[in-house]
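Incident review: delayed structure delivery

Summary: a single-chain prediction request sat in the queue longer than the usual turnaround. Root cause was a stuck worker, restarted by the on-call engineer. No data loss occurred. The affected request and its eventual output are reproduced below so the record is complete for anyone auditing the incident later.

Affected input:
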Amino acid sequence: MSGEATPARTDAGAQARARVLILSFSPLVSDARVLKQVRLLVADHDVTTCGYGPAPEGVVDHVEIPADRPAWRWSRAALLTRRYRRAYWGNPAVAFARGALAGRRFDVVLADDVDTVGLALWLEPRCGVHADLHEYAPRQKEDLLRWRLFVAPFVRWVCRRFVARARSWTTVGEGIAAEYERRFGFRPRVVTNATPYAELAPVPTGRPVRLVHSGAALADRHLETLVDAVGTSRGAVTLDLYLTPNDPAHLADLRERAVAHPGRVTVHEPVPYDQLVATLHRYDVGVMVLAPVTFNYRWALPNKVFDYVQARLGLIVGPSPEMARVVRDAGVGAITDDFSVEALVRVLDALDPAAVDGWKRASAAHARELSSESQVVVWADAITRLLAE
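Output delivered after worker restart:
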């Protein structure tokens, strides 16, 4: 354990504050979704956190899981022989947190992702467990054969054995919520990965139209589609990429492709998240064309969509159902016919600064309703309902 508990309050009002544990096997201070939960709940509750790295600001106590106790490590022998109970409780992160939290009493546990829910239930919080599911876990890495054969059955067991026994649930999109209901019998409410509201005004669009994409450099996201489309387009467009080096080989390939289009495509180092919206605000259109190579990619509604709205940009997205719905309903951009280079080129060739200005005005008009402030009230309501019951 690291971090000391804040000294106990002695005022009468503090006695009524509920004891809430936020449990996440992630580096908490860099996990945007978990930080939203912390910032929401510390105002009215005594919040303890458990996860990797230092304590988030505002909590009364923190249990730090050592970096050498990885949550991704499951016993291969236990998975192969389908001894799933042994696999779960033998996980290094689960085992450490179980020991560190033993004997503590909480009113509610907010468990992030499926792998924390069993531990949350074991703690027997007085008013129950809320499970926040960041994606559809049973198909998380379905593009890998060994994962489908050996890990997916275990994750399905975790969902049946633990997650279905939570008192309430949230997840990131309607398509994923529907699949949890279809397969496991519970229907999560939706809290999107929206970005905090930013007080910005749209910047007039000039020529060339400046496109931007920010995110992870991962081969299965096929970011070469964006590079090749801009390089092929006859329109007056440029593309700037702000990429984290998740896959160094893929990032190197993207840099090499960008060199073939000097003055049109530029690959930048990533910027800190608290500077991202301000950086994006210098551009005109955010681009996200994500081929549906997995179930979670098909139903993705990533934070970058909301980053672009808060930056008051227009958007170009592929026909991914969740992203297309946001763009269509808010009138903030264009949707490609499919996920190909050719489909994106058709949109880029038709780009008009006046139309982009209209998209930007729509982003400004819908920025509050598409902000995280409009979403986190679902968590607040879920915790309030549990405490009331």
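Verification: Residues 145-161 form the longest helix (17 residues).
Action items: add queue-age alerting; document worker restart procedure.
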